[in-house]
Amino acid sequence: MIPVLAGLDIGGTKCAVVLGVEDEKGITLVAKQSFPTPDTPDLALLLMMSELEKLLLERKGLELKAIGISCGGPLDSKKGLILSPPNLPNWDRIDVLSPFRDRFHVPVSVQNDANACALAEWKWGAGKGTNNMIFLTFGTGMGAGLILDGRLYTGINDMAGEVGHVRLENIGPIGYGKAGSFEGFCSGGGIARLAQMKADEWLAQGKMTSICSNRDEIAAITAKTVGEAAQAGDVFAKEIYNIVGQKLGRGLALLVDMLNPEKIVIGSIYLRQEALLKPVVMEELRKEALSYSLDVCTVVPSGLGESVGDLAALSVAKYGLEIEG
Length: 325
Hints:
Layout: E1 2-10, E2 14-23, E3 26-36, H1 41-58, E4 62-71, E5 75-76, E6 81-83, E7 92-95, H2 98-104, E8 108-112, H3 113-124, E9 133-136, E10 144-148, E11 151-153, E12 174-175, E13 178-179, H4 182-185, H5 188-204, H6 223-231, H7 235-259, E14 263-266, H8 268-272, H9 274-288, H10 291-294, E15 298-301, H11 308-324
Parallel strand pairs: 1-4, 4-8, 9-14, 14-15
Antiparallel strand pairs: 1-2, 2-3, 5-6, 6-7, 9-10, 10-11, 12-13
């Protein structure tokens, strides 16, 4: 029998069930099934259990060793409770561990999505072989997963790594409910809001941008349109990315100085826009961070690329199995 890990990704719009087989080279995804997130938690859990059973039955010779669950926070990883994440408002104190333990009789673990991605990058991606690593999501929001002294650090109630809430400026786009926050400047929504603010200023000054030609078009600006325009050389969009890179560098400097990591791995937008962001980020880091700490730290894009989301829950399964063992 071949040992297999199962991963469950619970999202606001869709859920996914994946199976992975690990060897000395890393992890191989052997099956995946995704579906729209059901209206109720009970239905979602029942459907995930059914899909997992189906995937295991369809592939003979696999022995399920552990199950990992990745979900947006807040949550209680020790008790296995989902605590009404913003994208899952009906999931209030929902026990996601007991149903799977009772049905499959293997270790089951849950982590928030940033921690899950950190574990995946640490086990199989750009952070492999490190003992002190930070993973930054830099996608829809800005969150961090912390690997400190060879272990996932979650804090006293799973709130460690909420770097998006840190205020970088008194004035700026709102992110994580706070103007001028790390997430306000460095997230998909934050980039769109920053561009909208700046576009209004540019148009008021009579300047033109390829992203919008009048104020009626400002609301339609997205992070994607800003990124595409910046890659095409649009001066306005490049200025937005220059600001984002400066704020990202400043946020990274805080992490470098406080946690002294050997590697910072950044996903999503940094992965796609490294050419635009890296020079500005590194310049700001060299100005702001302690040189002794920065000299031993490297900043890299996600090594797992766009597949990190699929592998995140599998890494939670692996980590839970290691901790229990």
